[in-house]
Design goal:
Length: 316
């Protein structure tokens, strides 16, 4: 038996999916075949790669080591194929990127749609999570590019500013809040608040600006998505600090209103491209990043081309 690329592909897929059955569906193989490949690989290496739990599998330490190296090998293989196709004027292939909620839901879809008009033979998969998970995905080699709303400094990570947004304290435009334009921070501490999960860039940016942890507020709910928070505000559950991009239409239509916090100016937050310094970008990833670079800077939330171009030149 040899440690060939097909076995690595199966192993890495099980690692990423956390399931034999999901991997079987993804690779269009039987679950028995997937289990057999993993067992053969474990026998060959003389080490257990996964712990089998009732509903999922989790990697062992040996599995984590093999994934880090194996994913890098598969990325190199894909890059070689892409580069050859590009050389032969047949630019095609796939690219997986990770993005945190706001850039993933409100910025990247437009960019991807425009990119695919130029390169229709390319397939892009967009994973959406929080900023911490995005940085981890890039650092672990699971994806080549990430787009996050917060810097998670780690050895090997590179962050490039590419867009900006303003956070807003948002309330339902109902009888209770219709006549209120400003609130003090002390009063805000007593009001029911809805906040994002611990890894959220929005939450981190707000806590940094006001100098207080979310736990100091009267938190009535921790929600894992911006959409869920918007629905909670609409239902009158409480207030929330949320991306201006995410609530633009609700504010314009009068469903929500913005409440100013006394003593605080605009609550600015930045978005960053996340790169792994130790990995060479594939041709498609380079092309996508260059496309992001060349997007129009006319919109207030579009990419800051000059800054990205200058940094990109030094990075790549």
């Amino acid at each position: 038996m040899r440690l060939d690329l097909n076995l690595l592909e199966v192993f890495c897929s099980v690692y990423e999916e956390g399931s034999f059955s999901k991997t079987a569906q993804k690779l269009r193989l039987s679950q028995q075949t997937i289990s057999g490949h993993i067992k053969n690989l474990e026998d060959y290496l003389g080490a257990r790669l996964f712990d089998r739990l009732p509903r999922k599998v989790t990697p062992t330490r040996a599995g984590e080591i093999l994934y880090r190296r194996g994913r890098a090998i598969l990325n190199e293989k894909e890059g070689a194929i892409q580069e050859l196709k590009k050389f032969l004027n047949g630019f095609e292939g796939s690219l997986t990127i990770s993005a945190s909620t706001i850039p993933g839901e409100y910025l990247m879809p437009q960019v991807i749609a425009s990119f695919l008009k130029l390169f229709p033979a390319v397939t892009i998969k967009l994973n959406i999570s929080d900023s911490k998970a995005v940085s981890d995905d890039v650092l672990n080699g699971k994806v080549e590019l990430g787009f996050a709303g917060a810097k998670r400094e780690a050895v090997g990570s590179e962050f490039i500013h590419f867009a900006s947004d303003e956070l807003a304290l948002v309330a339902p435009n109902n009888d209770e809040w219709r006549g209120i334009e400003t609130i003090s921070l002390d009063d805000l501490l007593t009001k029911p608040m809805i906040v994002r999960e611990a890894g959220s860039g929005t939450r981190l940016a707000f806590e940094k600006t006001v100098g207080r942890a979310s736990s100091e507020f009267n938190v009535v709910g921790y929600f894992g998505s911006t959409g869920a928070i918007k629905e909670a505000i609409r239902a009158g559950l409480g207030l929330s600090v949320i991306s201006g991009l995410a609530v633009r239409s609700e504010i314009e239509s009068g469903i929500f209103k913005v409440i100013n916090i006394e003593g605080l100016g605009p609550l600015r937050r930045d978005f960053f491209v996340v790169l792994n310094k130790h990995l060479t970008l594939s041709p498609i990833a380079e092309e996508f990043l260059s496309f992001v670079l060349n997007q129009s800077a006319n919109d207030e939330n579009a990419i800051n081309r000059a800054m990205l171009k200058r940094t990109l030149r030094n990075t790549l």
